[in-house]
Amino acid sequence: MKKSLWAIAISLVPVVSGWAAASVTVNQSGAGDFTTIQAAINSGASLITITDSSNYVENLEIGSPDGLGGDPLNGGPPVTLTSNQSGTNRPVITPFASKSYVDVRQTGSSRQAGFGLFANNSVVSNLIIEAQPDLGVGMGAMYVMATNVIIENCLFRIAPGTLKRLPAQNPLLFFAEQLGVSGTQGDVLPGGRDCNGCLARNCEFVGVAPDAGSLDMTPDNGGYIGAKTDTPPGFGQGSGYFRMDHYSDGRDVFVTLEGRYFHHDQDYGLFPSNFGTGAGSINVILKKCRLDANGKFLIRGRGANIFVESSVFTRAGQNISSDTQNSAIGINWPDNPGVHAPSGSVSNCVFYNCGSAAYQRAYFGGVNNDSGTTMTVDHCTFVDCLSGVTAGSDANALSQTIVSVLSVSNSIFHQIGDSVVPATDAYRNTLTNGAPELVGGLYPDWAYGLTNFISGTKWAAVFNRYNWNNVSQMIIGNCLVGSIDTEDTRSWDQALTDNTQTGCRLFAGYDTNFVGADTVTRGTPVFVNTDPDAPNAFQLAPGSPGQGLGANLAPVLAPKLGISQIGNQLTISWTQPIWMKGSLKSTPSLSSPVWTTVPGVSNNSVAVTIGAGNQFFAIRNP
Fold first, then answer.
1. What backbone phi and psi angles, to 5 degrees, belong to 235?
2. What pTM did the predictor assign?
């Protein structure tokens, strides 16, 4: 396999540290100021640093869910909770007892998490935070009801040695909105804490425990889709990675998820919702993220607006589900009169292996404006997806005069109607190389899924408007389409008359449903790298058809090198997305390079002594 150079850029980045006056340390052995984290929080310290790699089995609360001093808006002073550890050495926080919280959507005792954060402007970093599905109704990992919170360099996962699954209302991370004094669902506390300005970056979320076995699905193993109690048993215990259940009350709420890696969850991915009828909006910004291997969607805005950029989506919709609004990315109206119909945008993203023959609708694939207002898709690349982009309104949305428009431009579609290893097949088994169902390495999802697809939803297409012949439209501008599996070229009227699926289609829908169809060109794109984990994933090769179209992730995701010198000591440090496994290597020559791993690396930094001769450094994989 050809090795690729991942980074050669060098930059000098100053590091500024801020230390509050009241700082304490935590160490279970007694080598710190406290031996438990909650005791350190209760001390009133503004900076708490954990100095060991222990497993802290305790529930945590930063601030007060009900407010301090009789003021429900005052969650308490900000706290920074961190550790001086990294990677697998980060301290682990595991819930000890059942704990419930109320918010504007869940007013009873079913919303549960082991770590509650209620103090505005707090920071949590360098921790492993676990959910505990065997406690209470199933304890999520973290519950936030505060504004301007930063969560970074953390791993969210299921606690090992557990059996049950988390319920849908308790994902790994929940961002809450404060309940009003009446205590009734939908009553927002005026001016209450609503998670506006919260930022989660450089974190990993995984829907299985670290003691899980093989995550591939086979006839004898449920993998990440099956539950431990299924037959055959699996290891899927998560319900979702992230969730918001808000009611807009005149304010605009913005949450940013940046540089995060989400993978292996049997249910949903990121699920922000807005159930409110008032003014204002709920907005989630997702950028520079990697999302892989989910039973349902990877991100869907239910009444909430979503804005996605420079991210990679793979293996969405790998499980059986009756949901109607999904794809890797989707937006939909919440089916309540007067509730917000969402909008969104997707730019510079890659979609690979999205949709499957196991799912129950052939229109699921990359992006779906199910029943929002406007969704724009620009400079994206779709490869080996069951369908490309979809737009259409359900009957309830039509009754509210919601017109769904999806605008797609400057994008590339290739091998639509197919999937490839390691997606799931029609029986929810993981495809493997050499499987007899593969045709030239491709698995025809559109055909094998026909027995699973629900009647009326069996049409797979690059541009999919199969559902209604209404005013909802798809606007297309300057897109390149490569191969389509067993392309069905019949007119839409003829296909409906025959009522048979003979292949995947370029367009599924009437001509009036598409604007700009004549801007589509055909040609086979050539990519320099088809590894979705590489920074230049599905970047067009020079001379390939479609120059200037599709995603170009390398300028955004490529690792960045920094260098500083004191005397004859050179310090090299770098950043890279957390899902990439590149390491620092060196060679004395670029004309005939012999790359060797640089020893002594710690936290993506190393000091080297300047010697005689040249030495070139780069982040490489492998």
1. -130, 10
2. 0.94
